[in-house]
Amino acid sequence: MRRIAWFAALAAAAIAIYGTMIEPSRLVVRERTVESPALARFFGDAVVVHVSDLHTRGIGRRESRLLAALDELDPDYIFLTGDFTHANRSREPALDLLRRFPRRAEVWGVLGNVDYDGSRESCLLCHVGGAGGPLRGKDPVRLLRNEEAFLERDGRRLRLVGLDEARARSRGGDPERFFGARSDSLPTLVLAHTPWLVENAARSGASLFLAGDTHGGQVAAPTFLMQRLMPEKDWRYRRGWFRVGALPLHVDSGVGWSLFPLRIGIPPQITVLRFTGGER
């Protein structure tokens, strides 16, 4: 029994060391192909990267590996789905990290629940100098807060919808207005921190929905356990790819961590998106 207890303690220590010191910085680059003629026609051979939940405190090993991966990928578009910062911390480390992203890329994003804390500091991500200051525009990221924008590429257009985080303060009226009847047939890509309006987007004929928030649970524990530990999150869509009607939904496991610096079996990741089915 003593030997069993000794090996059990040794295994637990090894898992704890790995989960806190190694895997949280072991960034993985995943590649997924989306069957979408409309998006394939728009993006063509463009390199598109989905990044979520940075939760950065500054440039460390994880952030350095992220920047190296992005430099190697040389993306045309980077889509960010919220939680740039750690709760109640300065936004400057997040802004510093975003400014180091490849300059050639168009960088678009939405805010996550952690990016709001009710202070003037939280406004720095959108406004130079905080609340009341001029909007940052695209420096270093163009943030959409219950807004839509239209991207143009090789004579084609894409409708990009960015939704405010469901549990945070919203602006710009009812976000469901983006999913009503439309007179155009433009492909629509939706960015949101959580997939809280994914059913609405599916009914409206959106082409792709990108989200984050769950970090995949950070630990490869059963989903029913994660539901009990963090009931505020939408565990129906824990991580990876889903189909909501005809709409592809991607929930990214994210780059950073929250609550505890721990990842076991669910390493930090970014996802390269490829699109097929379109005529060139």
In short:
With 280 residues, this protein is an alpha/beta fold.
Please explain how this structure is put together:
The chain has 280 residues and is of the alpha/beta class. The protein has one domain (2-276): Purple Acid Phosphatase, chain A, domain 2 (4-Layer Sandwich), CATH 3.60.21. The chain is 22% helix and 23% strand. It has helices at 2-22, 37-43, 61-73, 92-99, 198-204, 223-229; strands at 28-35, 48-51, 77-81, 106-110, 142-143, 147-153, 156-162, 188-191, 208-211, 240-244, 247-251, 269-276. The strands form two sheets. Strands 1-12-2-3-4-5 form a six-stranded mixed beta sheet. β10 and β11 form a beta hairpin. The longest helix is centred in the first third of the chain and has 21 residues, at 2-22. The protein is globular, with a radius of gyration of 19 Å. It starts with a helix and ends with a strand.
Topology:
Blueprint: H1 2-22, E1 28-35, H2 37-43, E2 48-51, H3 61-73, E3 77-81, H4 92-99, E4 106-110, E5 142-143, E6 147-153, E7 156-162, E8 188-191, H5 198-204, E9 208-211, H6 223-229, E10 240-244, E11 247-251, E12 269-276
Parallel strand pairs: 1-12, 2-3, 3-4, 4-5, 7-8, 8-9, 9-11
Antiparallel strand pairs: 2-12, 6-7, 10-11
